[in-house]
Each structure stands twice: as structure tokens, then as C-alpha cells.
Amino acid sequence: MILNVFSISEIFVGVLSSALMIWAGIYSLILYRRQGKATGLEEKGRIEDRSYLVFLIAVVVLIVRLLNWPFFYATLQSFIRDIDGAMCIFGVTQVKPLFTKFQEILKPVVFFLIGAWLLIHKLDLATETSPLMRRKLLFLSLLSVVVIADSAGDTVLIMSIKPGFLVSCCTTVTDILTRPTRTTPESLLGPGYTRILEISYVISNLILLVILGFVRWGKKWHSITPWTGISLLLVFLFALVNGFLFILAQIEVLAPKIMGLPYHHCLYCLWQYVPDSIVTYLLFILGTFAVGWGFTTAAIGGKGEAVLILPHYVRGIYSFAFFCLLGSLVMVIIHLLMG
Is residue 167 included in any domain, yes or no? Predict the structure, then answer.
């Protein structure tokens, strides 16, 4: 095990998060079932009082887990000098490749679900009668499962990475001619696929920004109807497609140009050589996920008193998504122009 400030902090946070979310998940499920059976006002009052304690602890833990995603990569970055052959984070991920890949896939899922729950919780707090209490409790009990898996996985992974392990450089994987991110688009788009990817990335983002602008500042909707929900779902699906295009364009075109290394396609190296690109990715992730958060909030938050403030609340989420995606696109364009 590699011991430094980052790894010790990661293990501590992982163990504490796991323990607290086990308690919060079980207790929230118990309260969910009790509230469904409660009939008297006194009994409902006791359940609500206990729910507030669960929510308070959950909010703190979930915010910590939100911040843990970038901290996870900072921890892997701190291991580079202790892993033989590692030139960037990619090399560290090759010590336990399958386990690390699982954690890397799990983290955006956890990040999205945590953000969705926190926004629904904030919506419920804006009301006087807390109509979303049961839904929050059930959501939290389900969310705790993936948060525990993420927290425990981080702890085990960090403890299992040992110094002196010999790995391959990122160029042996990301820069080979048979990499899937090159062969697939080239077979579909032809030899000029890089230029098509670059243009498609810009156009796709502009289309998404126009859609978000229309949702936020276009015709005002005063309630969330089934048709509104379907429309928001379609926007979210388009945002996911746009996200896939973003990653593909970054690997094949944008990262090499921004780094000034036309034949190098490692995103981990991009973060290392051009640190402000991390902000670009953060804005894009927040913007894309906010599109999904707007949909999940509209789908779950339509109950009781929350219905009255839901349209304005959801439009605020889409406003956040718009400016995050716009900021990400502007940063990429500035880098390309400066390059």
C-alpha cells in the first residue's frame, strides 16, 4: 500500500462514508415503511423528526462523495512516482485495471444519483408540508447501495495498489493505430473522420445549447405535464449522445491539439499537461448531468405543494446546465485558437 496524505484521506473518507451510509440506508428504509403505515399526527411527527437527522447526515456524506470523484483522481496522480513505468494516471490504473475501470464507471453513476437526490431534497425543503418526504426516503435507501459500493471500492482499491509495480506507458494503448476510438469512426466516416468529429462536436453542443435556451427562456410552462416530461427525457438522451461525442472528439482530435502532441491521445496526460482542461471537463460533466437532473427532478418532484414551484425550479436547473456547457465549449474553442 502507498501511504501519503491523499491515500490516507481517501481510505478514511471511504470507511466513514460506508459506515454512515449503511446506517442512513437502513434507517431511511425503515422510516419509509413506517411513514406509509403511520396514521396519527403524533406518530407522523416523530417519523419526520427522525427523518431530518437522517437527511442531515446523508447530505454531509453525499456532498463529500461528490467531491471525492476529483479527489480519487488526485490520489491516483499522487501514486505515479511510486509505480514503475507510469507516466500519468493511466499507468496507475493498470496496477488493478479491471477493478479501477469498475470504479471509474461507477463514479459518474454515483455522482449523477447524488446530485439528483440533493436537488429533490432542496425542492422539498422549499415547501412547508414536505410532500416529497417518502420519495426522498425511498430514493436515499436505494442510493445508499451504490454509495456504499463506491466508498468501499475506493478503500479496497487504494489499499491494494502497491509501490514498485511495473506497468506499461499510456502510449502503448492510447496511441496504437488499432485503438477502437480511431478504427470505428474511420470505418464509418472515412479517412477525414477527425475533421468530421471536430465539426460534429461543435455543432452538437450548439444545438444542445439552443434547446436548453429554449427550455429555460422560451415559452413558460406552468406545470409538468406528461408531454413536458417526455420532452425533457428526449433532451437528456440527446445530452448523453452529445457526451459520447465529446469524449470521442476529445480523444481523437481535441486533446492532441490542445496538448500540442498530434499523435498522443491520452486524456489523463491532457489533465496533467494542461491543468485548466480539468475545469473544461468539470463544466461539461456538470452541464450534461444537470440536463438529466432537470428531468429526474420533474419526474419525481411533482407531488403536493412542490407542484407549484416545480416549473421554476426545473428551469433554474436547465439555466445552470446551459451556462456550464457554454463555458466548457468556450474554453475548448479558446484552447484551439491559441494552439
Answer: no
**Cα-only R_g, the chain:** 22
Question: Tens digits of per-residue pLDDT, 165-213?
Answer: 888 888 888 888 888 999 989 898 888 899 999 999 999 999 999 999 9
- Find all residues with CB under 8 Å of 169, minimum gap 6, and list them: 85, 86, 87, 91
Residue at 302 is within a domain: yes
Helix, strand, coil percentages, rounded to 5, for the chain = 80, 0, 20
Assess whether 96 and 231 both reside in one domain: no
Q: Could you list the residue range(s) of the whole structural domain that residue 135 is in?
A: 5-160
> What digits encode the pLDDT tens for the residues 26-50?
999 999 988 777 666 666 677 777 8
Return the bridge partners of 166, or none.
84
In angstroms, the Cα distances linking 235 to 15, 188, 239 are 37, 25, 6
Residue 257 lies in a domain: yes
- Does the predicted TM-score (pTM) go above 0.85? yes
